[in-house]
Write a structure and sequence with these properties.
Helices cover 48% and strands 0% of the residues. By secondary structure, it is an all-alpha fold. Helix 3 crosses helix 6 and helix 4 crosses helix 6. It is globular. The two termini are 37 Å apart.
C-alpha cells in the first residue's frame, strides 16, 4: 500500500473531529469582585477575505525550514499519475500559516513542528551528511520509516514520531481540503442534481434498510 492510499484511509477515519468549546459560570451567584476580561489576541481576521501568505500574521518558517517542510510534505503525499504533490498545491503555506496563528491549538503545534523539522535535518546530516531536502527518495523514506508509527518507534525516535504524526495530519488536512485533494478523494460535495431517486438498492441492502428486511 502506498503512502497516498494510507493517508486517504487515515483521513477518512478522522473526518469528524470534535469542536472543543468551554463555558464557565455559576447561576445565581453574585460577586463583589470586578470582572476582568481575559487577555486575548484581538479580533479574528476577515475569514472570507483573500490573502497572500503572511498578510494575516507574520509567518514562522525560515527559508531552510521551508525547504525541509516542502521535502517532508512531498514524502508524505508525493505526486502521482492522478494528483500533484502536497507542496505543489500550497500545503507548506498552509502549515506555515497554521503554526504562525495566535490561537492556543496552533501555538501548541508550533514548537512541535519547528523542533521536528530541525530533527529531520539533524538526522539527515547524521546519517548522510546532507540536509533532509537534499536527500534522495530512498534516504528520505529510510528516515521517515523509523518515525512513521508512534507505537512501533524505537525509544530514540519516540519524540520524532510524535512530530511526524502531527505533521502528517497537517499535511493530509491541507492537501485534501484543496480542489486537487478533493478530486483525488473523488469527493463530490454539495452539487445540484437535476433529480434524486434516493439511495440505490445496493446501499439500502448494505445498511439493512432494503425492502426485504
Amino acid at each position: 500500500m502506498d503512502r497516498r492510499v494510507t493517508i486517504k484511509w487515515v483521513l477518512a477515519a478522522s473526518v469528524t473531529m470534535p469542536l472543543l468549546a468551554s463555558c464557565a459560570g455559576t447561576a445565581g451567584v453574585r460577586s463583589r469582585q470586578p470582572v476582568i476580561p481575559p487577555r486575548g489576541y484581538g479580533a479574528d481576521p476577515n475569514l472570507t477575505g483573500v490573502y497572500r501568505p503572511g498578510e494575516v500574521w507574520p509567518l514562522t518558517f525560515t527559508p531552510p525550514q521551508r525547504r525541509t517542510a516542502t521535502a517532508l510534505c512531498d514524502v508524505i503525499i508525493p505526486a502521482d499519475s492522478v494528483s500533484p504533490s502536497a507542496s505543489a498545491v500550497g500545503v507548506v503555506d498552509f502549515i506555515d500559516e497554521w503554526v504562525s496563528a495566535p490561537y492556543p491549538r496552533q501555538q501548541e503545534d508550533r514548537p512541535i513542528v519547528i523542533e521536528g523539522l530541525a530533527w529531520m535535518d539533524d538526522e539527515a546530516r547524521r546519517r548522510y551528511t546532507k540536509s533532509f531536502a537534499d536527500l534522495d527518495t530512498t534516504q528520505c523514506s529510510a528516515i521517515c520509516d523509523d518515525i512513521a508509527h508512534e507505537l512501533r518507534a524505537q525509544p530514540p525516535f519516540a519524540k520524532a514520531a510524535l512530530f511526524f504524526a502531527r505533521y502528517r495530519d497537517l499535511t493530509a488536512g491541507g492537501f485534501y481540503s484543496t480542489p486537487a485533494g478533493r478530486k483525488d478523494l473523488q469527493y463530490i460535495g454539495n452539487v445540484a442534481l437535476a433529480r434524486f431517486d434516493g439511495p440505490s438498492v445496493e446501499v439500502l441492502r448494505k445498511v439493512g434498510l432494503d425492502e426485504a428486511t
